[in-house]
Amino acid sequence: MISELARIEIDPQDATAFEAAVASAAPHFRAAPGCHSFRLDRSVDHPGHYLLVVGWESVEAHMVDFRASPEFQAWRALAGPFFKTPPQVDHVETAVEGF
Amino acid sequence: MISELARIEIDPQDATAFEAAVASAAPHFRAAPGCHSFRLDRSVDHPGHYLLVVGWESVEAHMVDFRASPEFQAWRALAGPFFKTPPQVDHVETAVEGF
Description:
homodimer, four-stranded antiparallel beta sheet, globular
């Protein structure tokens, strides 16, 4: 299990519409093979900055299978118009589970 | 409830020692008032890059109370020597709980 972390920046005045678009995209992630969870976090410190956190079975499930799927196209059609810059994507795994 | 996200970069050859230092710091977070959770995520894509994820009651519990406490000093004494650059800190709250 890994998590995709995508740092997204939008115009702060579009926040409500962007969050609604992301919520409406949830079924496309739920339908994606190897996708375990999906959440959008909003920065408290920097308006318009978000972190999309998606749990995947593997990096390949995200970068190969999902990216080549119609579900990815549907996600990008919903959320992409809000992106001010290309999202910064990283993949992480738990190193220390503190508590 | 908010989460502190601290992006940390270390020398990749120190990874094992750094992760052990972070694990040994868990009691200092557990003892901090308003601290609910503590986890270190390791980047799969970029060796030496980490994300510290700490759940706090509020931004103030982290930035005011914890930063002024001996627990913060203990944390920095353990982990700080590994930091290549000052950690990039942000605070987030959940905007969309997809699934």
